[in-house]
C-alpha cells in the first residue's frame, strides 16, 4: 500500500475523473467489484467529478494543445472543498502534475503510477523487469521510469512501431469508441514479454477499459485501474474482496 496507512471510515474520497470518461466509469465499477461488501453500507463513499473537458494530457506534452494543469489543480481543490479526504485519479498521464496538485491541497492525492508499480511487484515477487504500455505523454514524462527506479525495477518499453500501435489502440480505438481485437492487445503484451518483461503494466486507463471489455484475466498483466481502485478502497476504510 503506497497511500496513507490509516483509513478514515465514513469520510468520502474524491475521484478526479473524465480522463477519459469511460475509464472513470470502469474505475467506479472496479471499486464496487473489488470491495468486500454484503450490503450498500459496506461500500466506500466517493465524490466523483467527471471532468471530460480537461485539455488532453498527452496532447499538451506533445505540444498540441493547452496545459491541463490549471484544471487539474482547480479540480483537486474543488474536491477538497466538497469534503473529500483524499483524491484518486483514474488516469496515468495526469500524474505528470501530481506534485503541483499535492501542493495545492491539504489532502492526499494518490499516485496511480506508484500504485501500479507496487501491484506489479506484488504480482511477481522479486520483479526485475516490468513492461509498460502507455501513452507517448506518460512515457516521455518519465513517471513510470522514476517509479520503477525507486522500486529497483528495470522498465521495458515498446519499440517504435509497437508504441505507434499502442497509441492507435488508445486513441483510434478505446477513446473513439471503436472496437479493438483481442489479437491486437495480445500482440502488444507479447512484444514486451519477448523483450524480457516479467509482468506488463497497463499504464493507460483506456487499456484497462479494453482489458475489461476483452475479458483478459492474465495475472501478469497488471491493471492501473485495479491498482488505484484497490488503493482507494483501502484509503476510504473499505475491505478488499479476497
Offer a few descriptive terms:
single chain, 242 residues, alpha/beta, Rossmann fold, 2 domains, 4-stranded parallel β-sheet, globular, disordered N terminus
Tell me the layout of helices and strands.
Blueprint: E1 13-17, H1 21-34, E2 46-50, H2 57-61, H3 69-82, E3 86-88, H4 98-104, E4 108-109, H5 112-123, E5 129-133, H6 136-141, H7 143-150, E6 154-156, H8 160-174, H9 182-194, E7 199-202, H10 205-214, E8 221-223, H11 224-235
Parallel strand pairs: 1-2, 1-3, 3-4, 5-6, 5-7, 7-8
How would the global form be characterised? globular
- What is the highest CATH level, the class of the largest domain? Alpha Beta
Q: Output the number of helix runs.
A: 11
Question: Could you report the average pLDDT, rounded to the nearest whole number?
Answer: 94
CATH architecture of the largest domain: 3-Layer(aba) Sandwich
Number of domains: 2
Strand count: 8
Return the string of H and E elements: EHEHHEHEHEHHEHHEHEH
Unreliable residue stretches? 1-8
Q: Could you estimate the helical fraction of the residues in percent?
A: 40-55%
Proportion of beta-strand residues: 5-15%
Strand order of the largest sheet: 2-1-3-4
- What Rg is obtained from the alpha carbons, in whole angstroms? 17 Å
Structural class given helices, strands, pairing?
alpha/beta
Gap between N and C termini: 16 Å
- In the CATH hierarchy, the third-tier topology of the largest domain is known as Rossmann fold
User: What's the story with the biggest beta sheet?
Assistant: 4 strands, parallel
Amino acid at each position: 500500500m503506497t497511500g496513507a496507512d490509516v483509513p478514515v471510515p465514513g469520510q468520502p474520497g474524491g475521484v478526479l475523473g473524465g480522463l477519459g470518461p469511460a475509464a472513470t466509469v470502469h474505475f467506479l465499477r472496479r471499486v464496487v467489484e473489488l470491495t468486500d461488501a454484503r450490503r450498500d453500507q459496506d461500500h466506500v463513499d466517493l465524490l466523483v467529478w467527471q471532468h471530460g473537458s480537461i485539455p488532453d494530457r498527452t496532447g499538451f506534452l506533445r505540444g498540441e494543445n493547452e496545459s491541463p494543469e490549471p484544471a487539474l489543480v482547480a479540480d483537486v481543490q474543488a474536491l477538497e472543498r466538497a469534503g473529500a479526504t483524499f483524491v484518486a485519479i483514474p488516469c496515468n498521464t495526469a500524474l505528470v502534475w501530481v506534485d503541483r496538485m499535492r501542493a495545492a491541497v491539504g489532502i492526499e492525492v494518490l499516485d496511480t503510477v506508484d500504485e501500479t508499480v507496487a501491484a506489479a511487484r506484488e504480482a511477481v515477487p522479486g520483479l526485475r523487469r516490468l513492461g509498460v504500455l502507455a501513452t507517448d505523454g506518460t512515457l516521455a514524462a518519465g513517471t513510470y521510469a522514476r517509479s520503477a527506479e525507486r522500486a529497483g525495477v528495470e522498465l521495458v518499453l515498446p519499440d517504435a512501431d509497437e508504441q505507434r500501435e499502442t497509441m492507435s489502440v488508445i486513441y483510434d480505438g478505446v477513446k473513439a469508441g471503436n472496437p479493438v481485437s483481442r489479437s491486437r492487445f495480445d500482440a502488444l503484451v507479447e512484444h514486451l514479454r519477448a523483450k524480457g518483461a516479467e509482468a506488463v503494466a497497463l499504464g493507460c486507463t483506456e487499456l484497462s477499459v479494453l482489458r475489461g471489455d476483452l475479458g483478459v484475466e492474465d495475472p501478469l498483466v497488471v491493471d492501473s485501474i485495479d491498482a488505484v481502485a484497490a488503493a482507494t478502497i483501502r484509503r476510504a476504510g473499505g475491505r478488499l474482496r479476497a
